[in-house]
């Protein structure tokens, strides 16, 4: 008997991502919603979205270009106001504090990682545990590179978000699939041919593994969450127009009109966006802690004191996440 196909569903785009794609203000999108030009729909995670078809209609509408231009003028004015009110000094100070805090987290995790160097021999072992150990070393290095870029105000610290997640997910994938034929083949290929399975394969398997523990419905929700995060952390990787305009474009105003344009060729002058990026990096450190626990807690196994440190870090991130949600 043929397997029933699931009905095709409309692709949903998160509202925050739609605003970025359209290069407009949140107020403008709400105005178009009030005019009945699209309806808000909720994804499996309960996040407000717009259908891809409705988004495309807005993107090619006659008034979109003017709305986008008005948003650039508003953004330029906002930066002027921040500078005049001393907000940039605040953003700069907060970025510095975040980087210092993150470096301390990193040093703690690095110390734990180095404690287990005698448990694997990367010149001989071709196991899932050895692969995960090597991948987490790369993650810690990438995080340190990101802190260096952030403290020197380089926006493209954002380029490191995706490879950090990809390395963590690959480590978890190898651990999950270590006893399967496909997992063994991918692991062998990773060691012998220097090739990795696709990140979409890793995300799918991680979501399905989560579903076996928490239920099938959680699989779909988890997969959507991972996909959303992947999209958010991929913006800087792709050479798209919007990402350049939103973070490097530096318009100069005269009589509330764009008089001239400039770009940030070096350190970013958009310190508000850089500050928000620095906050976003905490999610990567949290993922690193969870990756350590997932891959090594029982498999290494981790010493009791190291588990306690990692669980305490995880609790810090959970509490901060709960506070942000409220």
Give your account of this protein's structure.
By secondary structure, the chain is mainly alpha-helical. It has one domain. The chain contains 13 helices and 5 strands. It has a 3-stranded antiparallel β-sheet with strand order 1-3-2. Strands 4-5 form a two-stranded antiparallel ribbon. The model has no long low-confidence stretch (mean pLDDT 90).
Number of H/I helices:
13
Classify the secondary structure makeup into a structural class. Answer: mainly alpha
Largest sheet: 3 strands, antiparallel
Distance between the termini: 49 Å
List keywords for this structure.
mainly alpha; single chain; 326 residues; 66% helix; two-stranded antiparallel ribbon; 5 strands
Q: How is this structure best summarized?
A:
The protein is mainly α.
Protein topology:
Blueprint (H helix, E strand, L loop, with lengths): L11 E3 H8 L3 H9 L6 E2 L5 E4 H8 L4 H21 L2 H28 L13 H24 L9 H16 L4 H12 L6 H16 L1 H17 L8 H7 L1 E6 L2 E7 L7 H26 L7 H22 L1
Antiparallel strand pairs: 1-3, 2-3, 4-5
């Amino acid at each position: 008997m043929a397997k029933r196909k699931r009905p095709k569903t409309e692709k949903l785009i998160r509202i925050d991502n739609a605003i970025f794609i359209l290069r407009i203000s949140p107020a403008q999108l709400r105005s178009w919603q009030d005019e009945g030009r699209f309806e808000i729909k909720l994804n499996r995670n309960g996040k407000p979205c717009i259908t891809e078809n409705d988004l495309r209609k807005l993107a090619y509408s006659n008034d979109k270009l003017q709305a986008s231009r008005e948003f650039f003028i508003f953004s330029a004015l906002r930066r002027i106001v921040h500078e005049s009110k001393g907000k940039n000094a605040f953003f700069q100070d907060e970025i510095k504090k975040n980087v210092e805090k993150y470096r301390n987290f990193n040093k703690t995790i690095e110390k734990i990682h180095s404690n287990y160097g005698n448990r694997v021999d990367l010149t001989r072992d071709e196991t899932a545990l050895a692969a995960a150990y090597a991948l987490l070393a790369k993650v810690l290095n990438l995080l340190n590179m990101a802190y260096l870029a952030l403290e020197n105000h380089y926006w493209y610290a954002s380029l490191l978000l995706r490879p950090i997640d990809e390395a963590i997910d690959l480590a978890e994938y190898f651990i999950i699939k270590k006893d399967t034929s496909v997992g063994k083949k991918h692991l062998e290929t990773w060691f012998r041919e220097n090739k990795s399975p696709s990140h979409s394969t890793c995300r799918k398997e991680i979501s399905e593994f989560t579903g076996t523990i928490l239920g099938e419905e959680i699989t779909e929700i988890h997969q959507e969450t991972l996909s959303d995060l992947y999209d958010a952390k991929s913006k800087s990787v792709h050479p798209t127009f919007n990402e350049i305009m939103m973070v490097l474009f530096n318009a100069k105003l005269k009589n509330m009109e764009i008089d001239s344009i400039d770009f940030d060729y070096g350190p970013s002058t958009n310190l508000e966006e850089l500050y928000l990026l620095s906050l976003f990096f905490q999610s990567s450190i949290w993922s690193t802690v969870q990756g350590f626990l997932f891959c090594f807690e029982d498999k290494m196994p981790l010493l009791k004191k190291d588990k306690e440190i990692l669980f305490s870090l995880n609790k810090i991130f959970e509490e901060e996440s709960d506070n942000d949600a409220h």
